[in-house]
Design brief:
Layout lengths: L2 E6 L14 H12 L7 E6 L6 H7 L8 E3 L14 E3 L2 E5 L1 H12 L6
Parallel strand pairs: 1-2
Antiparallel strand pairs: 1-3, 3-5, 4-5
Length: about 110
Amino acid sequence: MRDTLFLLKHDFPDGPGAPYYCPECALISGVLHYYPALRHHMDVRYVDFPRPRQEVIDLVGEANQGCPVLVLDDKAPAAVEGVEIGSFNGRRFISGAGGIGNYFATAFGTGRPH
């Protein structure tokens, strides 16, 4: 399995008014735009906003279905300085744009979030 990145699809409804996007998912989408070669190292999957997000739950559990979330390959570094790596049923993952961005910098040599 390769690293798998889950992002929310944009323009989702959440009550009346204009549709929404997830700011943290948009930030990671921007990083993927800055560094398009990243897409060659991982699977990027876009999921719907409403919960439950079963595809994410199947990998990292119901409590960890927030996005963005990066599910790590078994060959990924065991630890990355400044990045909290969670675990569910033996599978490791990183939640949130800051941690994912720092992981990209360490694992793939991108710039770091400032």
